[in-house]
Design a protein that fits this description.
This protein has about 300 residues and is of the alpha/beta class. It is built from 9 helices and 13 strands. The structure holds uridine-5'-diphosphate (UDP).
């Protein structure tokens, strides 16, 4: 039986990864300090013998008694509101946390996959973003704490690969959505769906002309699973390349939810990227992966989750 350690396991992506690895027959050790994660996301796994949970902050020394085959490092505050509220924790989990997990991977002789992000491209000056683009990041702006932590994470992961010969994988995750996002995490999708359900105004920031490309969580998990098992160690974009403006996205959610809420406009947050869209030709070439779930289908499934949650 293969054993995998998943950090950030009680979070949105971490909990879906726990489900996937359990379904694939792995032993899963889940770790989370519950800063932004919730036990609700993984409580359905607690009865399984193959599932263990450790309440731990990976910025501190990480001890796992078991042998490990794989480590997936997904712990971090990840929405702009969260990392603005918790800038130091965000920097620590991306830097000290990653260092601890790389050290653990080395002693366990395990393969480690770290969760990087499209934020390392900053407010990009090329479009769509390919993996060989170096980015346009404001280190000292409000998003710098997340962007630079993730850039350091990539650097130290490559250093462990090159210097220690560690088996490493780096996924660059673009905007992803689905069940178990937090309604109040400030991201566009839960914000809009929450507002629609409560009958409040839908708050579009700026004029809504900034773009994003939203990937359904099941597609993302499939890409990550394939990357882990591949032999590719350079950073790889995983995301959905169907681009949409935030204004169009808000209008789609108004239609989907059948709400009477109106769209209103609020100031654009500092350094909010104007355009974001992954070039996923590498992921297709290396993993044979591309997203399968249409936005209409994914949004419908996510909305059903939020409706049940609010009830
Ligand atoms: N956004 C918005 N209204 C909200 C929340 C977010 O217009 O209530 C915008 C935000 O300014 C950004 C886009 O939606 O341009 C996506 O934001 P999100 O926080 O989901 O992720 P980001 O891609 O910025 O990390």
């Amino acid at each position: 039986m293969k054993k995998v350690l998943i950090t950030g396991a009680a979070g949105f992506l971490g909990s879906h990864l726990c489900d996937r690895f359990i379904a694939e027959g792995y032993d899963v050790i889940a770790m989370d300090n519950l800063l932004t994660g919730s036990l609700e996301n993984i409580e359905h796994l607690f009865h399984l013998e193959r599932f263990t949970f450790y309440h731990h902050d990976v910025s501190k020394f990480v001890h796992v008694p078991d042998e490990l085959d794989y480590i997936l490092h997904f712990a971090s505050p990840a929405s702009p509101i969260d990392y603005l509220k918790m800038p130091i924790q965000t920097l620590k989990v991306g830097s000290l946390g990653t260092h601890n997990l790389l050290g653990l991977a080395k002693v366990k002789n395990a393969r480690i996959l770290v969760a990087s992000t499209s934020e390392i491209y900053g407010d990009p000056t090329t479009h769509p973003q390919r993996e060989d683009y170096w980015g346009n990041v404001n280190a000292v702006g409000p998003r710098g704490v997340y962007d630079e932590a993730k850039r350091f994470q990539e650097a130290i992961t490559m250093a462990y690969h090159n210097f220690h010969g560690l088996e490493t994988r780096i996924v660059r995750i673009f905007n992803t959505y689905g069940a178990r996002m937090r309604l109040n995490d400030g991201r566009a999708l839960p914000a809009f769906m929450g507002q629609a359900l409560r009958g409040e105004d839908i708050t579009v920031f700026g004029d809504g002309s900034q773009t994003r490309s939203f990937c359904f969580v099941d597609d993302l998990v499939e890409g990550i699973y394939r990357l882990l098992l591949s032999d590719y160690h350079l950073p790889l974009n995983i995301g959905n390349p169907t681009e949409i403006t935030i204004k169009q996205f808000a209008e789609e959610i108004v239609r989907l939810t059948n709400t009477k809420s109106k769209i209103i406009y609020k100031p654009l947050p500092t350094d909010d990227p104007k355009q974001r869209c992954p070039d996923i030709s590498k992921a297709y070439e290396i993993l044979g992966w591309k997203p399968q779930v249409e936005r209409s289908e994914g949004l419908h499934r996510t909305f059903t989750y939020f409706c049940n949650k609010i009830k």
